[in-house]
Structures are given as structure tokens and as C-alpha cells.
Amino acid sequence: MYVAVKGGERAIDNSRLLLAEERRGDPAVPELTLAQIDQQLSLAVDRVMTEGSLYDRELAALAVKQAQGDLIEAIFLLRAYRTTLPRFGYAEPLETAAMHLRRRISATYKDLPGGQVLGPTFDYTLRLLDFDLAENGATPEAEMAEEPLAGAMPRVADILGHGGLIEPETPQDDRPVGDVTRDPMTFPADRDARLQALARGDEGFLLSLGYSTQRGYGKNHPFAGEIRLGEVAVEFVPEELGFPIEIGEITITECQMINQFQGSTTEPAKFTRGYGLTFGHCERKAMAMALVDRSLRAQELGEEPKAPAQDQEFVLYHADNVEASGFTQHLKLPHYVDFQAELVMVRRMRETAANNATPGDDFEEAAD
Amino acid sequence: MSTQLPTQIPTGGYNFAYLDEQTKRMIRRAILKAVAIPGYQVPFGSREMPLPYGWGTGGIQVTAAIIGPEDTLKVIDQGADDTTNAVNIRSFFQKTTGVATTEKTREASLIQTRHRIPETALSEGQIMVYQVPIPEPLRWLEPREGETRKMHGLAEYGVMQVKLYEDIAHYGHISTAYDYPVRVNGRYIMSPSPIPKFDNPKMDNSPALQLFGAGREKRIYAIPPYTSVKSLDFEDHPFEIETWDGACAICGATDSYLDEIVTDDTGGRIFVCSDTDYCGERVEAGHKGADDEEKAA
Question: What gap in Å lies between CA B215 and CA B89, rounded to an integer?
């Protein structure tokens, strides 16, 4: 006699136990600490904080550890935690011109006030596997400069702004900034909502979309006006005080892309901007975000949207990797009721086709 | 459903039913609007849940917003209470609310489901919560949300009729087997969620309140009790549901939705009820399947 499969609950419990064991790996190998992940896998922590939209290195490190290094899973863990946090207010806009820089480069000027500051980057390394590192070799020490960097360096876009060559970036109205984590997206989406969605968006997805614009799918002639990495103060205005106080300092990467704009009948030719901002050091993401931000501005700048990267619904509905990962992987859930419905349907269609076919037709045999 | 604030409930450091009260209020408002406009998709500020998108986050948020300490919860997936996803969601609510759970359709005040409507008729006061992956019935005909919202606003449903007509022209019948579109209260075309079309007639004029949650797509919609729900069709091609030649191998039912179970690798198969509670109830009442009778003979 057929007995229906039972015991889902116990199987699930056992699966969870097995996962915990797999995560730990060989117990003879020392367990990773959160400090080790924070310090030595810092770029993983940065990405998880950025796409998880939560600035907390320790929690992000915990998420990376718990997710066995699966960063999209770690981002999901952090988001699910973030959503339970009470919201006591919104910080003041960050003043990135006043940030303490560790890296600042511009591809549009050879030299500029404050200079080019290379900082820590993979850019000038030869991608040769370092076998000394495998042996836990000594770390070379970087020498301290003779004098510190300038306290504040003007942003390249602001330098261009003085000549009126680039569009000003000022709020278009006094409407409060939206919040995509509280309100559902509506289309056409405003730039505040778009930038938020892009900041949370998957690095790989934005990278490929940005790349597609460089290859001609919605080309917008970008220059890396400036990329800067450093620490910036976060200010908050408590209701009872009425003036801003500094509540902390965060590390961010900011990218300003400068793009050509041909001008129109009402406006002279000028440069336009694409903007990218991430927590921590996520340069590739910030650049990709800036490219896609500019692409999504096609309509407001009077360009005919033709390419995927210029299509708001396409980009914004598919950029979130927690949504994409969940829905892709939901195909693992049982679908046998729907599959049964399809089976009944396909059998019926084949029957109909077989009945309609002339005798001796190949189709009839295939339908058996 | 109860608004009474719970006390002394084991919730593991989280609020009752996981969501904070502000979020619940926002969801309840969306539900009220949805009930007031049957079949209309209400956008809501869907939250990230500790389960993945696509795994029932919309249904879970709806359930979390309306569940009260006196509720009795039933969770099914594919008609069964013990499928992995149903087990997972049920244990989530057990942990965060401590409410009583049941596998009996009759005993439940709240039923969260994925892909099925129970065979046992629902009654007044019961609430069905459906998990919805793609709430937009016109999505396969028009991928843009901006467009589909306009089409709903103007009740411009010609493309859907044409699609169904083309099916008939090509195959002799409508080729949609599940998630078969319905018209609610004579106005909005609505996705019934991916239930087999076999279940569509159960939605019509149901005494239960039916709520639909789509978490990833951030939409809630509803069918109030005793509301007309008509599966789309044509006068000369009326809507019809799946039928099977056989009966359930366990309980002998011929009126329930059957799952096909492959028994060997040479094409052998039997059919059993997808609704495990219904099947179990029939067996208890003394019904037998062909499988048992063969063995007995």
C-alpha cells in the first residue's frame, strides 16, 4: 500500500544541524573570529553593509561568518535584521567635501587642488598570486608621509560647477526624501528612490548594466570625474536640541561620473552627472552605480530610452539581489500541484492533436 | 482576528508575530482598502522577512498583521500540512506568536496557503491567506507595471480576452492550467495565485474572507465574503476544471484534486489527494482506496 511521505519537520531540523556542522568545517582548524573577518575580509564586510543597507561592521562580519562567505546570503541576513530595527529619525545629508580622505583620484584632470591620492587600491598591483601570503609571510609596512593630507579637498564636480559647465545638483523641490524600504516603488521613480534602490542593488547586476552602456547599449560618454574614499561625519538633529550633533563617523566611497550632454533647444551643451555612493570601500560598485544612475536619467534629460540600462522598471525591479535570489530559488519549493495541472493539460493537448492527425501520421505515434 | 494586545507570549525577543505594531497597522490599512475594492492590487510597504522572497513573505506579512492570540492557524503548501515550506512557516508563527495550530481545515480560524484551497468547504469567520508570487494577471501580456495599472484603471481587458481566444484557436481550449484569471465582483481581473483552476470555483461566493499577499511585488488584494468570482471564459467555451479517470488510491475520493505519484521507473503511477487533511478525514470515516481494496482482495 502507498503511504504518503511524512516527517518534514524532523528532516528540516536535521538539515539545519548538518548546515551548522558544514559551516564550522573541520574542528581541528581554528574557528574564525568576527574581528578576523572584519579586519582581513574587510571588503566582503563592506559589500555586505552596502547592499544590506546597514552600517555595522560587527553584524556584517557575523553575517559573513554565518553565511559561510556567501555574500548574497549574508546581505539577506543583515537585511532581515535591519527591518526589525526601530527608526528614530533621518541623519543630515553627508558633507563629502569635508571627508577625511584616504584615496581620491580624478581621471579628468592631471592635477587638481589637493592632488591625486592613490591610497589603498588593487589598481597598480600585478595580479600574481603571492605565495608568501600562503606561508603567512611578514606584511610590509607603508611609510608615513612627511605631511598629512589637506583637511578638505574640493570635489571635482564643484570645480567644474564654478564655470557653469556642469549641471548644478540641487534639490528640485522641498519634498522630504523618500524611503524605498518603507514605501513601495512607483513609476516613473524619482531620483532619490532610484539612487536608494541602486545603492542597495546587486554589484554584479549593476556592473554588467554599467558595462553594457559602455559597449553602446545606451551610451552616455562617461568620465570618472572623481572617486573618493574616506571617513565622513554623520550628523543628526535631535528634536529636543534643534541643532545637528555628530553621532559618529562612517567610511564611504563616492563616485561622480561626468557625462556629456549635447544640449537641446532650450539648454546649451554641458556636462551631466551620474552618482554612486557606498558604505566602506566598494569602488567597483560605486562606479557601476554612477553609470546606471546616469543611464536612468535618460528621460529627464530628453534622451530616447532604448537600452535596458535606461529602462527604470527593468533596472529597479531586478537590481535587488535579495528579491532576485529568493524568487529564483523558490523554484526549489514543491510545485507538484501546478505541475499536475500542466500534466493534465499537456496530455489533453497531445490527445487532441493525435485525434486530429491523419492515420499513419508520425505525430500519432509520438502521442502514444 | 483580534486587536487585543497579547501578554506573556513566548516570542523570542521579537514583537508578537514578528512585525512591529506600526508595520502591522500599515498592512491592516492596506488590507482594509483591498477588502473595500475587491480584486484591486493595493501597493504596500512590504518588509524584509526572515524567510526568502518567493517563499511566502507576502502571505506571512498578511497573517502576521491579522493574527491574534486566540487564533488557530493552519498552514498548507500544495494542499499538505507537512511539506517543507508549510512546516517552516508554521514553526515561524509558533515561535513568534505561540498560537494554537491545527491540520484540520474545520478547526482553523486562519489558513495560510500556497497553491491550493482546501477541499473541505470553508465557513463564515474563517480567513484564507494566499501566498502570491506574481500578483499581476496581465504580467505575461504586458511586462510594465505602469501600463498594467492603467489597463486595470480603465478596465481595458481586451488583451486578456484575445489571449484566451487565441488559445482556443490554436489548441481548441484555453491552455492555462493554474493561476487561471478571474474577474472579481464584475470589475477587476485578478490572479487567484498559482492554484490549479480546479480550485477556482471555490473562490466564488465563499463565506470566508480571502486575502492575498505578494511580498516581493509589494501588493495586497482581497475578496470579501460572498463576492462573485468568475473564471474568464466564452459562452461557447465555458470554463471547466481538471478531471481524473481514477480515484485517490488512499481514500477513494473522486471529487478531490489528485497528485500523481510515480511508483516505479516503468511508467507505473497512482493518484492520491493533494489535500492531506481531507484524505485523512475520509480514511477515518471508513473510506478506502483502490490500493487497499486490491491488497484486501
Answer: 14
pLDDT tens track of chain B, all 297 residues?
444 444 445 556 789 999 999 999 999 999 999 999 999 999 999 999 999 999 999 999 999 999 999 999 999 999 999 888 899 999 999 999 999 999 999 999 999 999 999 999 999 999 999 999 999 999 999 999 999 999 999 999 999 999 999 999 988 889 899 999 999 999 999 999 999 999 999 999 999 999 999 999 999 999 999 999 999 999 999 999 988 888 999 999 999 999 998 888 888 889 999 999 999 999 999 998 876 555 444
Local structure of B50: helix, strand or coil = coil
Q: What is the distance between the alpha carbons of residues B292 and B259, in angstroms, rounded to a whole number? A: 18
Candidates A181, A325, A348; nearest CB to B52: A325
* Beta bridge partner(s), residue B273: B258
| Element at B213 (helix H, strand E) | strand B209-214
Radius of gyration of chain B (CA): 20
The answer to whether the beta carbons of residues B216 and B262 sit under 8 Å apart is no
Identify residue B193 by its one-letter amino acid code: S
Report which residue type is found at A105. I
Name the strand (E) or helix (H) holding B158.
helix B158-171
Residues of B in contact with A323 (CB under 8 A): 53, 216
CB-CB contact of A321 with A305 (8 Å)? no
- Whether the Cβ atoms of residue A82 and residue A49 lie closer than 8 Å to each other: no
Q: What is the pTM of this model?
A: 0.89
Instruction: Say yes or no for a CB contact (<8 Å) between B177 and A84.
Output: no
From residue A208, give the alpha-carbon distance in Å to each of A203, A214, B51.
9, 10, 28
Give the three-class secondary structure for B177: coil
**Which of B216, B257, B292 is the closest to A326 by Cβ?**
B216
Which residues contact residue A336 at a Cβ distance below 8 angstroms, ignoring those fewer than 6 apart?
A: B78, B259, B274
Structure letter (DSSP) for residue A230: E
Per-domain residue ranges for chain A? 11-82, 96-120+149-168+184-319
Q: Can B158 be counted among the known catalytic residues?
A: no
Residues of B in Cβ contact (< 8 Å) with A197: none
